[in-house]
Amino acid sequence: MNICLRLKDERQRERLLALCEAMDWRCATLASLAELDLLQSSSVSFDLLISDDFGYALPPGDYVPVALTSDSDPANGGLDGHWLKLSTNMTDDELAEQLRTAVNVQRLARDLNGADDLEPTTRLPFEEILLERWRRRRLDGGAILAVHIDHGDHLYANLDPIAATEALAGIARRLLSQLPRQADVGIRDAANFIVIVPKLDRASSHSLSESILTGFRDAFDIAGNNVFLTVSIGCIWQRSVARVREVAEQAWLAQSAATDAGGNRIRRGVQTPEPMQQRIPQAVEADEFSIVLQGQWSIDGSELVGAEALVRWHGMDVGELRPSHFIPAAERTGTINRVGDWVLEQAGRHASTWFEQRLSAFHLGVNVSAQQFFDGSLSRRIRALQEQKWLDPTMLELELSQAALASVLDNARDEVYILKDLGVRLCLDQLGGSLIDTADLLRMPVDTLKIDRSVVGNIGASATANALADQVIKLAHRYDLRLIAVGVETEMQRDSLRALGCEVAQGYLYSHPQSPQQFLESLSARGDEKLAQR
Predict the structure, then answer these.
(1) What is the 3-state secondary structure (H, E, C) of 195-246?
(2) Which of 166, 208, 349, 438 is the most exposed place for a label (fewest CB within 10 A)?
């Protein structure tokens, strides 16, 4: 343990020096704060600054400031501002114990800060955290590699927990040993890793992939046995990468192709589009898509205040698919605009039949892709629907994730403000489902926040989920934003959300998704009820 002393009381200074010597702690005495700044600038780390003069501002640092005072009253002990107050009336043993405890608390707080973002064994960031870290950074001349341990699931399934932990640690070490210093590594799960390498040319990215493939062919010592592993690698190199998430998805697709081809190989670039990707344009023409509408209700269930339009694909060769199955494919192939335009037009046409039933403000939520903003077609489409009397832009809420909206603001800001001038509202979807960038969030011109179903699903059962929901609800109230809790399925979740101040909810507890005709009938019935009550 390293300690710095700045004590005017010579007797106490001698006592602390003797205590440090007895405890084998390294100790330095300071004559002024200038010496403290000098010590920190020399990269010397220390755990404690002990002083009997604590009426001054401390320079920042990763240490615990301890105020040594003659006041022995326990009521005056503990933390005072940033200082830990300890009495000189303590015995040496008591003082040593208190100092040890203070350092332990500081070290645990430092080492565990952000621990939820790291895989415990490898201390690598989870993939989502890694990609979020790179989201706002341009990757100039870089490569993204998706590395899969072939038959990794089978390997771990046949190991006891201790051996599995040791195997994962060894695999991570082997991978890291093959990478250049500038590489940034994340983990998806025990068998899948993602590597981002900036400032790498195409030839070097190929050489790196080969090096990893070759390096994994040497035996691993796992539970006292020599185990031979191979890897499948998807490698995407681009001269300039502005959207790291999209390129990472391409790397995983390439890795999947390498695995499907037998593993122990590298695939560079995305292969021929999958049948589903090829079918999407045909499906739009063949009228294979449909929309369903899920109501948004006042938290007590007494009033229907809005709806979200959800797209479904009904094809003879695909069955019924939800958006999560085909929207990523549509985005990869550039057909998302056609799908998005179709959804917007259908939702607008159906919404145009609601006007007679509207007894109060009503909102229509439609999920959109960031790509729909980039050529100005979204605002043109909404203007056209408005001119045809199929859509009132003031009732429309365009829903995007935080990452998608950040990309839009960076690349198509003018389109955002054209839409806002039309009266269109922006809704931040899936809030809490991934890492929240607070600084980014506060700059976004949003009108509505939606708490993600992953958070709502734990409301009432998890203090952490409750705390996150509470913060989001307070944020909405502070900035006068509309707020919706998504995925409410139980009365406990509803009651907990209502206690936190949530006013609007969406989920199976209130209503399941309905066809437009069913929804219109529900809306009409609600209108009749309200008219009868007048």
Answers:
(1) EEECCCCHHHHHHHHHHHHHHCCCCEEECCEEECCCEEEEEEEEEEECCHHH
(2) 438
Which residue spans within 78-230 are E strands per DSSP? 78-80, 83-87, 139-149, 184-189, 192-197, 220-222, 225-227
Count of CA atoms in the C-beta half-sphere (13 A) of 359: 14
Q: What is the mean pLDDT of residues 329-340?
A: 79
Do 248 and 195 contact (CB within 8 A), yes or no?
no
Element holding 433 (H helix, E strand): none
Residue whose token pair is 């509202």: 425
pLDDT at 271: 47
Structure tokens at 311: 């797209």
Kindly report the backbone phi and psi dihedral angles of residue 420, in degrees, each rounded to the nearest multiple of 5, phi listed first.
-65, -35
The answer to whether 235 and 196 are in contact (CB under 8 A) is no
Q: In a 3-state reduction of DSSP, which class is residue 419?
A: helix
Type of residue numbered 456: V
Other Cβ atoms closer than 10 A to 341? 18
Q: In 3-state terms, what secondary structure has residue 66? A: strand
pLDDT digits (tens, 9 = 90+) for 161-178: 888 999 999 999 999 999
Decide: helix, strand or coil at residue 13: helix
Mean per-residue pLDDT, 326-349: 83
Other Cβ atoms closer than 10 A to 512: 10
Contacts of 40 (CB under 8 A, 6+ apart): 59, 61
Residues 6+ apart with CB under 8 A from 154: none
Q: Which residue has the tokens 């600084």?
A: 439
The two three-digit tokens of residue 225, written as one number: 């046995």
Q: Phi and psi (nearest 5°) for 157?
A: -65, -25
Residue with tokens 């705390």: 467
Place of tokens 């139980």: 490
Q: Strand 425-431 vs strand 396-400: parallel, antiparallel, or unpaired?
A: parallel
DSSP string, 259-325: HHTTSSSEEES--SPPHHHHHHHHHHHTT-EEEEEEEEEETTSS-EEEEEEEEEEEETTTEEE-HHH
Contact 232, 150 (CB under 8 A): yes
Between CA 354 and CA 367 the distance in angstroms is 20
Q: Between β-strands 64-69 and 192-197, what pairing exists: parallel, antiparallel or unpaired?
A: unpaired
pTM over 0.85: no
Residue 20: both structure tokens together: 């440090």
Q: Quick check: 203 and 141 in contact, CB under 8 A? A: no
Residue 301 identity (one-letter amino acid)? G
